[in-house]
Amino acid sequence: MKLNFNTYKDKVYACWVGKNIGGTIGFPFEGKRQVLDVTGFTTKPGEPLPNDDLDLQLIWLHAMETTGPYELDCKKLGEYWMSFISPFWNEYGIGKANMKHGLLPPLSGDYENSWKNSNGAWIRTEVWASMAPGCPEIAAKYAIEDAVVDHGAGEGTFAAAFVAAMQAAAFVETDIRRIIEIGLSKLPADCRVATTVARILECYDKGVSWLDCRNTVQQMNADIGNGWFEAPSNVGYAVIGLVYGEGDFKKTMLAAVNCGDDTDCTGATVGATLGILYGSAAIPKDWQAYIGDRIITMSHGEGILYNTPKTCTELTERVVKMAPVVLQANHGEVELVAGESEIPEHPVPDLGESSLTLQRLKALKPYQFEIDADLFRVRVTYDRAPDIATGEELGVTLTFLHPVQDKARRYISALGNMPRCLNLRWWLPEGFTVEGKQSVLLPHNTAHDRTPCRDIHCVIRAGEHVEAVNRLVLEVIADGRPTAAYVPMTLLG
User: Fold this and answer.
1) Angle at which helices 74-84 and 136-151 pack, to 10 degrees?
2) ∠ CA 339-342-346 to the nearest 5 degrees?
3) Is the domain of 106 the same as that of 228?
4) For residue 393, which of 461, 472, 456 has the smallest C-alpha distance?
5) Which alpha helices (DSSP H) does 175-311 contain, by range?
6) Are residues 343 and 410 in the same domain?
7) At what angle do helices 52-67 and 74-84 cross, to 10 degrees?
8) Which H or E run includes 454?
9) Is 224 inside any structural domain?
């Protein structure tokens, strides 16, 4: 499918302006749990408020520009968190603290994280959607890698996949209901985000009022966390704005914000989504003039990174430069062209169970992470939280897979037959022991198989002395190959 470059660029710009508008209107009311009566801006004209929803994405743009689309995963994004992002509140702080102690993503988002169902990830999806226009699978792939750093296997990660897919689809779809359904198709039907969005669509179809729908959403998720600041309801409030606003920018924005709770997030997301759907023509001129073009940041380590975009215009220019690179790297079936757009009647097919996003989310488990070596992949799944005391045991399942990413396919083509026999060696703290196999044999011709190849279960036993942070390393060597893979594991005393 072909997408006119100028049309695409206008949608990206409208996305960021809409994000700025919604964040600025909603921010003064953030955390107010009651139904609100907001009618517009309450801030000074020309002064957009700083908002982590937008400025965290400036770091992700920098990450994509410097690391590139092939290598950018949750572990790389975790390092960018540690280097450039300053907030320590809620899931941000928990994820960073866990990484500081050696827990790799997505484990960093799972361990002792009471905020894993919160809003920190689905509010920062536009950068992924804008670099993968018309390709929900690609956008959701990066959104999941982003989200698991501070949300692990929580609802916050499901929410990020939903919003990223919805927004990527909005570049080539024109119907609000359709992009919501595309987002839903990427989620397990029984996750709380999916059941919440489905209930909203049901309410709207039955003629339930905006207020009653809002109250239904709040009540059905009151058991999550402390009943507020959680992803299912707040994503729901954004969806309420989209369906009940019926394409009108102001009506949509105010419907979402007046649901209350995390108002800057809901407002910013619906503003960005409508900007993508309809371009800058859909943004009210008075609101656009009121907000201006500037981006004000609040979440970057001061003095560390100097080249982040300062305006929506500059941000747009840099994002659209990366889009062809991201699309090509991920085999995106969208071409940005100078000529007319050529978009079929159903530009985003329903992939059903074959959706890689859906498969990834269904397979997501707590206390799990992966190490991607060149010739194989190792998935580590602890039986429980990675704590250990003197003389205590902790089981761990090691899943050995053939590589399946695009990068791996290049290796398969270049190197021919993949190795079958993998030899294992443990490097342990003094007094620690491991019981389990010392080698594993991979099956034949599964280089493109996306299912696990071999599982082995090991038991780690602590010695008489346990440190606060205990680092173990599994060395994996493939027979007949010179490169060894090293799988770091951290157990907290």
Assistant:
1) 60
2) 160
3) yes
4) 461
5) 176-185, 192-205, 210-220, 231-245, 249-257, 263-278, 285-291
6) no
7) 120
8) strand 454-461
9) yes
Write b or e for each residue in 399-431: b if 16 or more Cβ atoms lie within 10 A of its Cβ, otherwise e.
Answer: bbbbbbeeebeeebeeeeebbeebebebebbee
Q: Answer yes or no: do 390 and 464 share one domain.
A: yes
The amino acid at residue 202 is: E
3-state secondary structure of 311: strand
Question: Contact, 407 vs 147, CB < 8 A?
Answer: no
Q: Are residues 207 and 301 in the same domain?
A: yes
For the domain that residue 406 is a member of, what is the CATH number? Answer: 2.60.40.10
* Same domain for 391 and 248: no
| pLDDT by residue, tens only, the chain of 493 residues | 999 999 999 999 999 999 999 999 999 999 999 999 999 999 999 999 999 999 999 999 999 999 999 999 999 999 999 999 998 999 999 999 999 999 999 999 999 999 999 999 999 999 999 999 999 999 999 999 999 999 999 999 999 999 999 999 999 999 999 999 999 999 999 999 999 999 999 999 999 999 999 999 999 999 997 778 999 999 999 999 999 999 999 999 999 999 999 999 999 999 999 999 999 999 999 999 999 999 999 888 755 788 899 999 999 999 999 999 999 999 999 999 999 999 999 999 999 999 999 999 999 999 999 998 877 889 999 999 999 999 999 999 999 887 654 443 444 444 446 677 899 999 999 999 999 999 988 776 544 444 546 899 999 999 999 999 999 999 999 888 888 999 999 999 9
Q: What is the domain range of residue 460?
A: 367-492
Residue 93 structure tokens: 């702080």
Q: Label the pairing between strands 393-401 and 454-461.
A: antiparallel
Burial bucket for residue 86 (CB in 10 Å: 0-12, 13-18, 19+): middle
Residues 452 and 479: beta-carbon distance below 8 Å: no
Say if residue 92 is in the same domain as residue 159.
yes
Element (H, E) at 422: strand 421-427
Q: Is residue 362 part of a domain?
A: no
Q: Which residue has the tokens 């659209």?
A: 320
CA gap 346, 181 in Å, rounded: 13
Residue 470 per-residue DSSP state = E
Please, are residues 113 and 94 in contact by the beta-carbon 8 Å criterion? yes
Residue 361 lies in a domain: no
Which amino acid appears at position 172 of this protein?
A: V
How many Å apart are CA 39 and CA 395, to the nearest integer?
56
Q: Which two tokens stand for residue 199?
A: 């209930």
> How many domains, in total, are found in the chain?
2
CB 153 within 8 A of CB 106: yes
Tell me the CATH number at 52. 1.10.4080.10
50 prior amide bond cis, ω within 30: no
Residues 317 and 410 both lie in one domain: no
Radius of gyration of the chain (CA): 23
205 with 251, same domain? yes
How far apart CA 448 and CA 460 sit, in angstroms, is: 32
